[in-house]
Specification:
alpha+beta, Multidrug efflux transporter AcrB transmembrane fold, Alpha-Beta Plaits, two-stranded parallel sheet, 10 helices, disordered C terminus
Length: 312
């Protein structure tokens, strides 16, 4: 039975030839994402800034102007309306109330009375400002802890050059996703944070596969020039990288199309993250080893030791 192969055996693409162009693109991507995050800022969801989130299905196609005026008359502070899902679906966000949880409950009751029986309240979430701040801090710690753990793991398994390259590629992917959410003004909530952590794991796995082949080839081809060896290693793992990425993207695309609006931002972050993670593993993580002055000495010693252990 023939196996499906998108990349033929023996493919020899010169990835290192365009690595400077890729570095320039990545620099623009990272600086742009950081600039957008600082200037425009992230649209934190209810999870992080507190407030009330209501998903309603109206009896008929809503008039957003009239609906905004009706909710504005309640004097509940900042109220935003968003159409999503089907024509009759409305997402309402209201800022956290001054009296905390009691104020949130009074606001929710006022909205129910103003909407009347014609509105079906399908989902209601209330988060206090203190809890939102705690979740934001905990999320930042979670991302930082994952980066430190990955740095320690890759450093222990390989050499410090590999650890720095892997963490840089991981940071590249995370910043790109954050920049996308800042650019589009999408809700940045706990599900988005979960997607970022998931993409971090996917990206580092992809990078470690490439690095493992580089380490293997360093032991095997002692006289091969480093750039040529990096090209060979990336090409050797290219079929696996492409097949895995396409498989994951197909599953995420199906969820993005059919799973509904509740996890749409999660799926979008995952889809973009897989693309960026695959790019960084090939065009960022591997070429960085050239500039990190990767040495062969440690790998030659490992190969010599392994050969001695294999002798009868």
């Amino acid at each position: 039975m023939r196996r499906l192969r998108l990349i033929k055996d023996g493919t020899r693409i010169d990835f290192m030839r365009i690595h400077k162009l890729c570095f320039a693109f990545s620099a623009v991507l990272i600086l742009g994402a950081i600039g957008l995050s600082l200037v425009k800022g992230l649209n934190y969801g209810i999870d992080f800034r507190g407030g009330i989130l209501i998903e309603m299905r109206m009896a008929e196609t809503p008039d957003f102007g009239a609906l905004r005026a009706k909710l504005g008359a309640l004097e509940l502070g900042d109220v935003t309306l968003q159409k999503f899902g089907e024509e009759r679906d409305v997402l309402v966000r209201i800022e956290v109330q001054k009296d905390g949880e009691r104020g949130n409950q009074r606001a929710l009751q006022a909205i129910r009375e103003a909407m009347g029986e014609g509105a079906e309240f399908r989902r209601v979430e209330t988060v206090g400002p203190t809890v939102g701040e705690e979740l934001r801090t905990a999320g930042a710690y979670a991302v930082l802890a994952s980066v430190i753990a990955i740095l320690a793991y890759v450093w222990f398994r390989f050499e410090w050059q590999f650890a720095i390259g892997a963490v840089f590629a991981l940071t590249h992917d995370v910043v790109a996703i954050v920049g996308l959410f800042a650019l589009l003004g999408l809700d940045f909530d706990l599900s988005t944070l979960a997607a970022i952590l998931t993409i971090g794991g996917y990206s580092i796995n992809d990078t470690v596969v490439v690095y493992d082949r580089i380490r293997e080839n360093l032991r095997k081809y002692k006289r091969m020039e480093l750039r040529e060896l990096l090209n060979k290693s990336v090409n050797d793992t290219l079929s696996r990288t492409v097949m895995t990425s396409i498989t994951v993207m197909l599953a995420i695309a199906a969820m993005l199309a059919f799973a509904g609006p509740v996890i749409r931002n999660f799926n979008l972050a995952m889809l973009v993250g897989v693309v960026v993670g695959t790019y960084s593993s090939i065009f960022v993580a591997a070429p960085l080893l050239i500039y990190l002055k990767l040495k062969r000495g440690a790998f030659d010693a490992e190969a010599k030791h392994a050969a001695e252990q294999a002798k009868p």
